[in-house]
Task: inverse folding
């Protein structure tokens, strides 16, 4: 995505975010932009380059010393004080991808709470394990499953003193 288009998309998502949070607070239902907001948040917070819309297999690129890393971004809005189990949207096992990133957003504000990432091969392997219809047929992992596979990348873990 060229810089001008990328900046315009970021501006639109920055404007949509508070509207989506207001909508949720008024209705108790999500507006349906969580995925796009998660992509915007990850790109802004972690300095990722968003891929053009409808790119197969990944949503963003991270430049590394070893070359570009393709990242599939998933978002989940939830109440951090809630105890219910949460699921991530469908993870697409086909297509080029190196890492899956999970952006956890506070459902009342859509502000980021945490960002986690896991290697794509580990996520695909977990999806293929027998025992769960949601995992096997829908490609949906529980947030707790994803966290066990990955590591938190934002906010940065505090270093011991």
Result:
């Amino acid at each position: 995505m060229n810089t001008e288009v990328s900046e315009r998309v970021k501006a639109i998502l920055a404007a949509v975010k508070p509207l989506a949070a207001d909508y949720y607070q008024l209705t108790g239902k999500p507006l349906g932009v969580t995925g796009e907001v998660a992509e915007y948040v990850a790109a802004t917070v972690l300095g990722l380059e968003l891929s053009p819309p409808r790119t197969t297999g990944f949503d963003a690129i991270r430049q590394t010393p070893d070359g570009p890393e393709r990242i599939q971004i998933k978002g989940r809005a939830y109440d951090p004080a809630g105890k219910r189990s949460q699921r991530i949207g469908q993870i697409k096992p086909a297509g080029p991808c190196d890492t899956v990133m999970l952006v956890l957003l506070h459902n009342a504000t859509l502000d980021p709470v945490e960002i986690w990432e896991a290697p794509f091969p580990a996520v695909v392997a977990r999806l293929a394990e027998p025992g769960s219809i949601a995992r096997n047929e829908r490609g949906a992992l529980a947030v707790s499953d994803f966290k066990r596979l990955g590591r938190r990348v934002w906010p940065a873990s505090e270093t011991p003193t």
Notes: The beta strands are 49-50, 60-64, 67-78, 99-106, 112-119, 151-154. The mean pLDDT is 88. Residues 105 and 111 are 5 Å apart (CA to CA). The longest strand covers residues 67-78.
